[in-house]
Amino acid sequence: MRKLFSLLALISLVMFACKEKNTAVQIDGNKMVLDCGTEIISIEDLSTEMAISLFSGVLPEEQKFEYMPEGKTPASISIFLVKTGGKTYMIDAGFGNAIKENKIDAQSISSIFITHMHGDHISGLLQNDSVVFSVPVYVAKIENDYWHSEEAQSAELQKIVASAYGKNYKTFNFSDSIVSGIIAINAAGHTPGHTAFLIGKGKQKLLIAGDFLHAAALQFPHPTESANFDMDKDKASKVRIALMEMAEKNDWFIAGMHIPSPGWGKVKSNGEGGFIFSTP
Ligand SMILES: [Zn+2]
Questions:
Q1: 209 CA from centroid of ligand 1 (Å)
Q2: Ligand 1 center from residue 244 Cα (angstroms)
Q3: Ligand 1: centre distance to CA 190 (Å)
Q4: What residue ranges define each of the domains in the chain, with the CATH number in brackets?
Q5: Which residue blocks in the chain are alpha helix, DSSP H?
Q6: What is the pTM of this model?
Q7: CA–centroid distance, residue 33 to ligand 1 (Å)
């Protein structure tokens, strides 16, 4: 956690590298434009639901139903495109629906950054075990090392992605500025190398926080509830809170791959340990 906060000092140093007039972040549907010419497009790969049985923490069952009255809540699987410095970067690849449905032009992508190596984030990199993109794919080194260790169970897909991309399969370290305007932030907990990406070259930022939560309706107000998908539930919960505190303190937008599309908004503490999420 200390690493996460020492990163703030680094960010504040580079934060004002680009000076622009004090305008508001421009948001139009699934498009967000930050100062200093950074554009983000949110693409829904799949519209889905999260079931109440996936979540556990301190809340009694009946209280969880207050947030998920039908025993489930809407969710998405999202991919984000970041356009900056004349290039387009893709964050995660979903299951591959968006690519098959031509919502993404594979030729327009310069590099791909992966939040973590679960199937709903990397399956879109492959079609019949072959590469869909002929550009570099970046994964946190810790994440890569885990899926190639003996500790990992059912790591077949992860290994196929790594070998299919070959030389184009690359790793980064937390706190790396992968390209100008995209910083990798340690958000480990959901998986051992789960990464959030801080987007923006100016004062305005979007924190793409991957799978920091899965059921927006439940986990914004009750961030101590974790999903079965969280490999370390306790750590995931602490990181969930830390990321939201960071976003609130710095007035950043925050996005998640499973928040209903377009999946971004601002968070504000509710004074009771939870957060209020407001969409633009
Ligand atoms: Zn996921």
A1: 11
A2: 18
A3: 9
A4: 2-278 (3.60.15.10)
A5: 2-14, 61-67, 97-100, 119-122, 141-147, 156-165, 216-219, 233-250
A6: 0.94
A7: 25
Residues in contact with 76: Cβ distance below 8 Å, sequence separation at least 6, in sequence order: 44, 45, 46, 47, 48, 257, 258, 259, 260, 261, 263
Spacing, Cα 20 to ligand 1 middle (Å): 35
pLDDT tens by residue, the chain, 280 residues: 555 555 555 555 455 566 777 788 999 999 999 999 999 999 999 999 999 999 999 999 999 999 999 999 999 999 999 999 999 999 999 999 999 999 999 999 999 999 999 999 999 999 999 999 999 999 999 999 999 999 998 999 999 999 999 999 999 999 989 999 999 999 999 999 999 999 999 999 999 999 999 999 999 999 999 999 999 999 999 999 999 999 999 999 999 999 999 999 999 999 999 999 999 8
What protein residues have CB closer than 5 angstroms to ion ligand 1? Answer: 120, 211
